[in-house]
Amino acid sequence: MSIQTISTTPFEGQNPGTSGLRKTVDVFRQPRYLENFVQSIFDSVEGYQGKTLVLGGDGRYFNSVAIQIILKMAAANGFGKVLVGQYGILSTPAVSCIIRKYQTFGGIILSASHNPGGPDGDFGIKYNIGNGGPAPEKVTNAIYAQSQVIREYRISDAPDVDLSEIGSVQMEKMTIEVIDSVADYAELMQSLFDFQAIHTMFANGFTLRFDAMHAVCGPYATTIMEKMLGAPEGTVVNAIPLEDFGGHHPDPNPVNARELMDYMNGPDAADMGAATDGDGDRNMIVGRHIAVTPSDSLAILAANATLIPGYSKGIVGVARSMPTSTAVDRVAAALKVPCYETPTGWKFFGDLLDDNKITLCGEESYGTSSNHIREKDGIWAILFWLNLLAVTGKSVGKTVHDHWKRYGRNYYSRHDYVNIDSKGADGLMNRLRSLLGSLKGKVFGSYVVEKADEFSYADPVDGSVSERQGIRIFFTDGSRIVFRLSGTGTVGATLRVYFDRYEKERLDMDMQTALGELVGIAGKIADIKAYTGLDEPTVVT
Ligand code: VG1
Ligand code: CO
Asked: For this UniProt entry, which segments traverse the membrane (predicted)?
C-alpha cells in the first residue's frame, strides 16, 4: 500500500448547486472527475487530519465505485477514520444523525436525491459539515474555486474494501469502520416519538402503505415500521433499493408516486400513505382520497408539536423556504413564535437551527424536519404524522380539514418547465427582473399587483447575503407568484413557478380551479410560452 500523488487539470462547472454537485453518470465517470471534486473538498476545509468522516449514499448506480475511490482518497489525505454504511448505504438524514452523534469532522453523501438513477441517470456528491448539515455557501464556493485551480490529488493504491460485513479494517493509517446503516438513526427516532402509542395503533388495525420507491429508505422503513412498530409485513412496498430505482424518478410527489396515489384513491386505500425519495430526506403524506401539500404538512406539524414527546415543551420558532406557502406563518403567529423565510435549499436552515432560533422547518418540495438533525428527514415526518394520529385518533383528512377550519387554507401548486433551453430560461428571468419596477398597481383580471421584487436573504446569524433567490409578485389579496430556476437539474434549465393563494372561508375548492386565474397571469407576465417553447408545464405538483 502506498499513497500516490496524481497530476490533474480542472474540469469546468464543478459548482455545487442547491444540494451538492449533480451531473449525469457519464460526466462523473470521466477519469479524474470525481477525484478532482473530492480533493477540492478536502483542500477547502481545515483540521481534518486524524479526524473522522462519515460516508454513504443512496445506492444508485456508481455509488459503489465512488465509495471505494473516496475511501482511498480519505486515507491518502490523512483522515483518521471513516464510518461507512454497510454496502455503502446511508440515507441523507442518517448521515446527518451519525455526524452529530459521533461528533465527526464531517460527511460525504453520494446521491442525486430525487433525480433518476442508473447508467443513463444522474449521480451526485454532497459535503456536510460538523453540525451534520449541508456545507453553507461560503464552503461550497470555496470548493468550487479550488476545483477550478486544482493541480493534483492524493489517493492510496490499496485494494477495494469489502463493505458487506460490519466491522473494521485498516487502510494506510486510517481505520474504516463498516457500520449498520439503520441502527443509529432508528435509535434517534425512538427518542423523539411515542413508539408504544404507534405500535398500539397498528395492533388495533391501523393501516399504512409506505412506498420506498426502490430507494434508500427501504431498509430503514422495514426495520422501523414493520419490525419496531409492528406494522404488518408488506406495509413497506418497493422496499428493495435498486441502482436505477426501477426506472422511476424516486421523487415522492403525486406525479411520480402515481402507484401510491392510485392505491390511496382506490377502494383498498390504507389509513395513511407515505413515500420517500432517493436519499430519504423527502416525504409525501397521503390520506384516503387526499394528498397533504408539504406546506400544509409543515404547518400542521408545527401546530401540533406539543402532542409529540420530542417537542412536548413547544417550539421556539419555525422557518420555511421562500416559495413554500405561508400556511406555517399563521401557525407561528398564533403560537407567538418567529417565522423565518430562507432561500430554497436545506443549507440555509443550518445557522437558524444551530443558534436555536427555530425547532421545525420545511420546504414546499416535500421536505420537513427539525432540530434533531441538520437535514430534511422523510421517515421523521412520517413518524411525526403517525404519532399525531395515534394521539388524536383522527384521520389524515380530518386533521387537514380541522387545520384549515382554524387557520384558513393556502391553495398551493408548483409548475415545473423541465429541461428547457438555458438561454430561454435566463432570458425569461432577465426580462422579469427588468419589469419589477413597473408592475406595482397593474391590474390583471381580478388581481392587482401590490409589489414585486427579487428575494435576497441575509443570514441573521452570520450576516452572509445570498442574492437573486427568486422573483416574487405579490397581489393585494395576499396571493403570490414566485419564479425561480432550479439548482439541482443536470440537463438544460428548469423553470419553477409557484402559486400561493390564501382563503379564510372557501376551503373546498378544487386546487387548479382556485389557482387557474393566477396561472394565466403568470403565463402572461413572464411570457412563459415564448421563452420555454412549452404550452404547458412538464410537471404540476
Ligand atoms: C429542489 C427543491 C428544493 C430542495 C432541493 C434538494 O431544488 O426545490 O426545495 O431543497 O431540490 O432536494 P431546486 O433548486 O431544483 O428547486 V433533494 O431531496 O433533491 O436533495
Ligand atoms: Co432528497
From this structure: none
Distance 25 CA to ligand 1 centre (A): 19
What CATH superfamily is the domain 185-407? Alpha-D-Glucose-1,6-Bisphosphate, subunit A, domain 3 (3.40.120.10)
Give percent of the chain with pLDDT exceeding 90. 97
| Beta-carbon contacts of residue 452 (< 8 Å; ≥ 6 apart) | 435, 436, 439, 440, 471, 472, 473, 474
Predicted confidence band of residue 17 (pLDDT cuts 50, 70, 90): confident
- Which ligand 1 atom is the nearest neighbour of the CA of 344? 9
Q: What are phi and psi of 57, to 5 degrees?
A: -155, -175
pTM: 0.95
User: For position 490, what pLDDT does the model report?
Assistant: 84
Mean pLDDT of 492-515: 94
Handedness of CA 497, 503, 506, 508 (dihedral sign): positive
Output the CA 282–ligand 2 centroid distance in Å: 5
> Strand, helix or coil at 274?
strand
Is ligand 1 within 6 A of the CB of residue 122?
Answer: no
Asked whether 324 and 363 are in contact (CB, 8 A), the reply is yes
What is the pLDDT at residue 491? 85
pLDDT at 497: 98
Return the CATH superfamily for domain 3-181. Alpha-D-Glucose-1,6-Bisphosphate, subunit A, domain 3 (3.40.120.10)
Q: What is the CATH number of domain 409-540?
A: 3.30.310.50
Q: Pick the catalytic residue: 19, 40, 96, 113? A: 113
Report yes or no: 252 and 366 within 8 Å, Cβ to Cβ: yes
**pLDDT surpasses 90 at 142:** yes
Q: Is 486 in the pocket of ligand 1 (CB under 6 A)?
A: yes
Which of the 8 DSSP states describes residue 305?
A: G
* Closest C-alpha to ligand 1, atom 11: 488
Ligand 1 binding pocket includes 459 (Cβ within 6 Å) = no
Ligand 1 mean position, distance from CA 169 (Å):
36
Residues spanned by CATH 3.40.120.10 within the chain?
Answer: 3-181, 185-407
Ligand nearest to the CA of 488: 1
- Parallel, antiparallel or unpaired: strands 174-179 and 167-171: antiparallel
Q: What distance in angstroms lies between residue 281's CA and the mean position of ligand 2's atoms?
A: 5
* Closest atom, ligand 1, to C-alpha of 363: 9
pLDDT average, residue stretch 437-442: 95
Tens of pLDDT, residues 327-373: 999 999 999 999 999 999 999 999 999 999 999 999 999 999 999 99
Among this protein's residues, is 44 annotated catalytic? no
Confidence (pLDDT) at 18? 85
Is residue 511 very low, low, confident or very high in pLDDT (cuts 50, 70, 90)?
Answer: confident
